[in-house]
Write a structure and sequence with these properties.
The complex is a heterodimer of chains A (473) and B (497). Chain A is an alpha/beta fold and 473 residues long. Helix content of chain A is 23%, strand content 30%. The longest helix of chain A has 16 residues. Classes of the chains: A alpha/beta (473), B alpha/beta (497). Chain A: It comes from Paenibacillus rhizosphaerae.
């Protein structure tokens, strides 16, 4: 018999038949231990309905792997097998992890620069045509990460939710809906194919009284949900865990609860996908966010209107800063959703030239496909093109652009809203620099004549939204 | 191919193969072996021991017939196959130590292991007489774990010692990171064996905190880990500490995941594995770490960390008994004994260290030799108390005002430390309890001349460093007079709690 093959960071899956009676989600324990040489990695299996149980695994090393199952059900216990992990295919760089305390890279060492966006409920519309449109729009966009929710808001009545049931009255939090997850997995897989990371928001506070009640469950109930989610989705290499959106809006949970849930996710996740939590209220109170020095958070997922806070956040916790919400481009009534594309680009440049990452979001009223941040669809704003331009410039530069600036070989300097007719630069005097003037809105790069060194002054057009790129020659 | 056809459980099995002398074999011995029993398979890489000698080591953890298949470019096509019989373990051999009951340790055969460690970073690079003295001292003391550096600071070697680094000396005496020094490993192995004979675990730190002279490339790092682990994993008393992160500012950008993965791949003995550093220096929840090894003065952190990470916590460096230089070397003995008691009664473990300078300008925690301080007899005393106690005592989170470990309803040990309590109220339904008043510094135990049950107050002398032990001596029918405590039978009402 031919040995089954799985590419590195691909997904190995086994399906087993087992008990269907009672409540298999609760009654049956199933896990497997995968072994590569002497290293053993344990993962949970899950019940997929109709008497079928599955175990998924993402191998991270090429070569021979063996596994053996462990279960409370006799027919699922002690099942063993093996497979061969082959080289990763083209464009599969593995899961993203932190690099050097403020950057990201894929598992194979390729740098990953998060250019994220938000489409909270794009998988909950029940409209496949709309989902195809969203995927197509993301594929064409400069975005490589999308924040998306697993659970519905209070007033949503999608055809299926993570739990069994279709409305708050019949939702059963002791059972999951395998069809809901199968659909979600299809969407995550499609994102993977177009090179987009799925930043999964596991809880959110928008399920207030009279709703589904999923945001006010006990820690034990939440563990039950998290364990199932991780068993199903952990083997997708493009998954990130965002424990909650605007966690501080959830009055039913304390910071201690969130710590406990984050630690639980860490314990169950054999791969250690990126793990963070996103603040709400505190966006209006300067730099009072979650305590990101806690070891179980891998990066700082921030909501803050001020990209200038990046410097302070990086100094406080030695972890990458991703300002996942910095106000959205749009025209809605709420403060968070009505800045111009120009204002958003100003914040992008401010954040990135301070060593952080900024994310996009868009919400226009009265557009045919609805608000992008809620349901995906089509992008109408003016920022995506400019974000593409910025991404290209960052990608052209050194991998560690902040390190290069410190070391003196390269600098990207953003001049913001100020109108300079000239600008003083202080450069090392043992090197010669070429300077370019960047118009962040009109997306032009023009060479400043001559080379510069030491204390120099460049003449500028006295226009806002300009940046300078310095490169040692 | 040479090997013994029988080996005792958890002893080292060794396969020896001659080869042409070739220093390139240090980097890659070209020899991989699969050991199999039933459906289980374990893997051991061969290593080069110099002088044309290739060795494969293995530690069988199950009695019965094991088969092996060695293969690789250093062997004829098809490799070599063989079998050996694993016999029952020798009396007193319990196997390697593992994590047990989430936050504790036990030997592989289930016997509880309570770490009473001591720091001995460079004792293995001293002369014969000094090493013999160290072993003699250890034998007479209670320590059951010694922390050693695999790359000890060369300045700490004994006078005239030439064997002090895992790496061979290259041109001009500079270390050659592509070749190892078999003499160093032979010496180290003698030390591991001697420790093992006295029931002492050897915690080996692979990368030291101060590596100014040791700058390995990533490839050299990986090879070094492979060599060390393949060679030493056959010693059942070995623990791995991949790196000492010092005070937390060092190498904080280095991801030790890759190094830990290499250890786990090569380690056929499945030994304990951790990183050592300040509380904020590493993500302790990472699943590739079996336990937490901290450098931290405030030992009360033990109860927080066991709760958060659900792993055993050892404060391996909370300061040494000594008079300097530096704060970390200047603890009075009372303070170190306090830290060891406090850490233990908070559900963690604390390691001893001594920086007092003795004869010949040496000190215990670097060079070994003889203990000078006043701590160790008190640690002896504590260990005896613990060895009389039920296994796997758990920290009682309800009694945070006085650190207490217990077996609920049967046994409790409360430590008052700096707090000079004059009395303590207990509520202990369901039995009759003997109470011991313990002066931890003077090592005196006073058994109160009556037994106690239900609600009772124990008077204390109001002095420093006292502990109280409650042991159930008989079951007494519950009278039902103290209903409000039934939910928490061991809840004591503390002074001002």
């Amino acid at each position: 018999m031919e040995m089954q093959e799985v590419e590195r960071w691909g997904m190995f899956e086994i399906a087993l038949e087992g008990p269907a009676e009672g409540n298999p989600f609760q009654d049956v324990e199933l896990s497997a231990e995968f072994q590569y040489r002497n290293d053993r990695i344990a993962v949970d299996g899950f019940y997929d309905g109709a008497g079928i149980y599955r175990i998924r695994f993402m191998p991270d090393r090429e070569g021979a792997w063996r596994f053996i199952t462990k279960s409370s059900a006799k027919e699922l216990d002690g099942r063993s097998g093996d497979f061969v992990c082959t080289k990763a295919s083209f464009e599969n760089h593995g899961p993203v992890r932190v690099r050097k305390g403020y950057l990201f890279e894929y598992g194979d060492g390729t740098p990953f620069l998060p250019f994220g966006t938000t489409c909270y409920h794009w998988t909950h519309t029940g409209d496949e045509e709309h989902e195809r449109l969203t995927i197509e729009e993301l594929r064409k966009s400069p975005f490589n990460k999308v924040r998306m929710c697993l659970l519905p808001t209070r007033d949503m009545r999608p055809g299926a939710v993570a739990y069994e049931g279709t409305c708050p009255e019949d939702a059963d939090t002791t059972r999951f809906n395998p069809a809901f997850f199968a659909h979600l997995e299809k969407c995550i897989h499609e994102l993977m194919q177009i090179g987009v990371e799925a930043d999964l928001i596991l809880f959110h506070p928008y399920d207030k009284q009279g709703g589904w009640g999923f945001n006010g469950l006990s820690n034990e109930q939440d563990f039950f949900y998290l364990r199932y989610v991780i068993a199903r989705l952990g083997a997708f290499r493009n998954v990130w865990w965002s424990l909650s959106n605007e966690y501080d809006f959830n009055r039913m949970k304390t910071v201690e609860d969130w710590d406990r849930l984050l630690l639980y996710v860490q314990r169950r996740d054999a791969y250690q996908h990126l793990r963070s939590i996103h603040n709400g209220t505190k966006m209006y109170e300067h730099a009072t966010v979650y305590d990101f020095t806690k070891s179980w958070l891998t990066h700082q997922s921030i909501q803050h209107w001020d990209a200038g806070a990046t410097t302070e956040l990086l100094a406080k916790a030695h972890k990458p800063v991703v300002i996942d919400e910095i106000s959205y481009e749009g025209n809605v009534a709420k403060r968070w959703g009505n800045i111009t594309g120009l204002e958003l680009m100003d914040r992008y440049w401010e954040g990135m030239t301070r060593g952080g990452f900024v994310a996009h979001g868009e919400c226009f009223e009265n557009k045919p496909t609805g608000a992008w941040i809620s349901r995906g669809g089509r992008l109408y704003g003016e920022s995506p093109e400019r974000i593409r331009f910025l991404r290209r410039l960052i990608e052209e530069g050194p991998e560690d652009w902040m390190g290069a600036r410190e070391e003196g070989s390269y600098a990207l300097i953003y001049l913001g809203k100020y109108r300079f007719s000239s600008y003083k630069l202080s450069m090392p005097s043992d090197r010669q620099y070429q300077i370019e003037l960047i118009d962040i809105w009109n997306m032009s790069v023009s060479k400043v004549t001559g080379t510069y060194t030491g204390q120099s002054e460049v003449t500028l057009p006295a226009q806002p939204y300009m940046a300078l790129r310095l490169q040692a020659v | 191919m040479q090997f013994e056809d029988t080996v005792r459980r958890w002893d080292a099995f060794e396969l020896r193969l001659p080869s042409d002398p070739d220093d390139a074999l240090y980097a890659e011995a070209g020899l991989r072996t699969v050991f199999a029993k039933g459906t289980r398979q374990l893997y051991a890489d061969g290593f080069y021991d110099g002088n044309g000698s290739l060795i494969v080591r293995f530690m069988p953890d199950e009695q019965g017939v094991w088969s092996f298949h060695a293969d690789g470019p250093s062997l004829p096509i098809g490799g070599l196959k063989g079998e050996f019989l694993c016999l029952p373990a020798d009396a007193g051999v319990h196997g390697p130590v593992r994590v047990a009951d989430a936050t504790h340790f036990a030997y592989a055969d289930g016997t509880a292991f309570t770490p009473f460690g001591t720091e001995l970073s460079a004792w293995h690079i001293q002369d014969d007489a000094c090493r013999a003295k160290t072993i003699h001292t250890l034998q007479a003391s209670v320590f059951n774990k010694a922390r050693m550096s695999l790359m000890p600071n060369a300045e700490n070697r004994g006078p005239g010692e030439t064997v002090f680094s895992p790496f061979a000396a290259g041109e001009g005496g500079k270390l050659d990171f592509d070749r190892y020094n078999p003499a160093y490993f032979a010496r180290l192995e003698e030390c591991l064996q001697a420790l093992g004979q006295h029931g002492i675990e050897a915690e080996l730190t692979l990368f030291p905190a101060n590596e100014a002279d040791i700058q390995l490339t990533p490839v050299q790092e990986e090879r070094y880990i492979r060599y060390v682990v393949s060679r030493l994993a056959a010693y059942r008393n070995v623990w791995w500490t991949i790196a000492d992160l010092g005070d937390g500012t060092l190498r904080r950008d280095k991801d030790w995941r890759c190094g830990c993965r290499t250890v786990r791949e090569c380690d056929y003995g499945q030994h304990l594995l951790t990183v050592h550093g300040a509380p904020a220096a590493y993500d302790w929840g990472a699943p590739w770490l079996t336990h937490i090894s901290l450098r931290h003065e405030e030992v009360t952190i033990a109860s927080t960390f066991t709760l958060q990470y659900e792993k055993p916590v050892i404060i391996d460096h909370c300061g040494y008994e000594g008079t300097g230089p530096g704060k970390e070397n200047a603890l009075p003995p009372e303070e170190l004994v306090y830290r060891i008691w406090e850490g233990l009664t908070r559900g963690g473990y604390v390691t001893h260290g001594e920086a007092l300078i003795g004869s010949g300008d040496t000190c215990w925690s670097i060079h070994g030799g003889e203990l000078q301080g006043e701590c160790w007899p008190r640690i002896d005393y504590l260990r005896k108390l613990i060895s009389d106690a039920p296994e796997f005592l758990t920290y009682n989170r309800m009694r945070h005002d006085v650190s207490t470990i217990e077996r609920q309803g049967d046994y409790s040990l409360s430590y008052f430390g700096a707090h000079r309590c004059t009395s303590r109220l207990f509520a202990m339904p369901g039995g009759e309890f003997a109470v011991d008043l313990i002066d931890t510094w003077n090592m005196k135990l006073e058994r109160l001349d009556q037994t106690f049950q239900e609600r009772f107050v124990i008077k204390l002398p109001g002095k420093l460093y006292y502990a109280l032990r409650l042991q159930k001596v008989s079951d007494v029918p519950v009278t039902g007079t103290i209903t409000e405590q039934e939910q928490e039978p061991l809840l004591a009402v503390g002074d001002g709690d």
